[in-house]
Predict the structure.
Amino acid sequence: MDKPSLKKKAGTYVLMITQNIFPNGNAGAVRDLCFAKIYQALGYQVAHIGMGQAQSCGMYEDVEFYSLHTDNRFWGSKPLRHIYYKKRLKKLYQKLREKYGTPYAIHTYSVPNDSMLWAKKTAIQNNIPIINDTVEWYSPCQFKFGCFNYHYIAKDRCNKKILDKPFRIIAISRYLENYFQNQGLQTARIPVILDSPQYSTNSERRAARVRFTYAGTPHNKDYIHCAIIAFCKLPEQIRKYFEFEVIGIDTETISKFYSPLPPQIHVHGKLERNNVLQILYQSDFGVLLRPEAERYAQAGFPTKVVEAMMCGCAMLCNITSDLGLYLVDKENAVLVNGNSVEDAYNGFMQISEMTMAQIESLKKRARDTAVAHFDYRLYIDAIRQLLSPEKMR
């Protein structure tokens, strides 16, 4: 990676402010990069302020990036870290403004509320567009103390109180789109987006077993325990033709779900993103179960589904969020009715009755669906409209 360039001019660049581990450190960072490429396609350069852990600044795919990451232990409590985050953010913004002038627009994603308020004030003072990429709305069930959890309260306040005019909204789901449109905000629904040419599929894969993969950190969102229990309960004569790769969870945690684990379950713990993709390329099905009625499942959109499909995996899942717009049972996915052990068991059994030719057909259609709906290039015009000067206040 190169050092930041010095070519930006006032009004010709978009400033992105997020807390994602840019570049490529997490799913949010991948989404950030896709939006950066959209801004570039519209003729703007991009300066990104994130929380990357590898280096404090650099260039990545023509995106100039800076990191405000610090050792959390040093800064103490979360409120204190947020205070210092805002101070460091304002200081870095001033340096960028001295170099390049005022940005054409500000793009935010899940930054602390006080920093969101500062960004909104800055946009108003400079009469520039401010766009927030809105990707989630928590449910109490995700947290030990429910609606009294700090993160729950902060996100609720952000979505209900802070995100008002002049914010323009990128909504990752219909649930969020409907909410913000009803608040009178200009809104564009953009689901998970990826750069499809960067994903290849292994068309020559001819494994002896059908491979399932879960890659993620459940955090009371994904009911991976139900899928693991269901897999363990499969008859041995069926399970011996399967294998299940579990990424992002350690063996000790999985053993709490079911013990002893059968040899067909391979536990990887946390892996670098490139290693995760290599396993997905060699897999047949991604696995995801979530409770359909919970707000977080309706408001979000599972990145792991789109990334698995882009790698040529079909999905074994139930319908949450907007997945029903894209997934069709037995065409590009195997859909189950819910998120229980029984539902997962039935899904595994259905797949056990399929031929490899049928599975390969599902996988090809899953990849085609991903390219047709989740490539970032499909949403360039939507962002152009959000940036349109005549829509400014």
